[in-house]
Amino acid sequence: MDEIGTHKGQRQSEQRLTHLGVTMYIRRLIQSVPYKPPSLPPRLLPLADLVEEEHTPHYKPQHFYPVRLYEILNNRYQIAAKIGWGTSSTVWLARDLHQWRWLPPRYVAIKVNASNYASQESAEQEVRITEHITKANPQHPGRNFVAILLDSFRVASPGGTHVCMVFDALCEPLWMLKRRFEGNTIPLDVLKPVSKLILEGLRYLHTECHVIHTDLKSDNILLSLRNPSILNSVAQDEMNNPSSRKHLDDRDIYLSRNYWGLSPNELGRSVITDFGLAVRGDGPPNTHPIQPEGYRAPEVCLGGDWSYSADIWNLGVMLWDLFYGRGLFDTPPDSRVSGSADEAHLGQIITLLGPPPLDLLSRGKEASRYFDAEGQFKNPNIIGKKDLVSMAKEIDGDGEMPQFVDFISGMLRWRPEDRTTAEDLLSHPWLP
After folding, report:
1. Closest CA to 99 of 274, 231, 273, 272
2. Burial zone of 251 (CB within 10 Å; 0-12 exposed, 13-18 middle, 19+ buried)
3. What is residue 105's DSSP assignment?
4. Per residue in 35-80, pLDDT tens?
5. What is the pTM of this model?
6. How far apart are CA 204 and CA 255, in angstroms?
7. How far apart are CA 333 and CA 318, in angstroms?
8. What pairing do the DSSP bridges indicate for beta strands 160-168 and 211-212?
9. Which of 151, 210, 256, 329 is deepest in the core (most CB within 10 A)?
10. 424/273 Cα distance (integer angstroms)
């Protein structure tokens, strides 16, 4: 009986392998065929020039996976064009070869992370938190306004293991949208719907996912495409007009193809992206430094606990920057001669909002560096005079200005608990 059972098990294994082989053969027959690299020679950039990710602080080439155009990652995604880069990743447009060949090509964006993380655990954190955001509540309307993870995998290079994340391909970020308008500022009638969708996404992150983004800026809010067929045009343009690149022994460093010449009616909803620095807000208190200079919430500068309302402060500063053309708390170069960036930033906040409440100072372990026991700022010479109303009056002819100023003011409060939540902001009369 044992021998009969053994033969039966072998037959079943052979049948499974045969079935698997037939299935894979059929899939190869009907799935998309990889494109062949074009024979056109690209323009080579001088070796001495720094290109894209080479500009990042402490850049080391071995930290970045040497992606090459038209290579296939994870036996599925063929690289079609480089579309972005950052301090710890590059982003690529790729054709999904699992699309049936009789259907239009399907394109995705792949974020290939560098291997410069302190540990493999920290390298995996962005994937884990993005998976959590993707799965938290698929029925929530705000989920449409955050980047959703479609797939993830790992690739190896001599420099280590690189986490790759697959998303729907988006188009231009908000800083690029600004360039479409006179004065490099987004008018209120355009900024209004953008603000509402960002808040819908933030409400989802805060209330459903319990996630704090910590890095809201115009680089990380992208617009979707109304017509995804544009992506095929981008891929074809790369084949017909190869991107300039720097050719090194172990890699090519390409110029990104991130301006697609889209008309305004081809731009879709705003989407919050890049959760590489995001953290959970439902665990132990967060105290580590976050946010770019100029966007930093007061409690972060003071070394206190911070939570979801840090994102709200961040959003208020970003929206004002998009509308006004420069940041609310941009510090003059001469204000940093003797002090730190945080000191100059706190001086700008006092200029706009007045002195901080004493109870807030008592919560920050760094407060004594900048304020005395009576709550007086130790460097009063860098405090100026300005307020939102007078700044807004510099821009004429918009009857919505008072409501917009009130909308922004609700986000910019010294105490984190005094700031309006994303949910409450969505019912503000300024929004549609």
Report:
1. 231
2. middle
3. P
4. 899 889 999 999 999 999 999 988 999 999 999 999 999 999 999 9
5. 0.90
6. 35
7. 21
8. unpaired
9. 329
10. 22
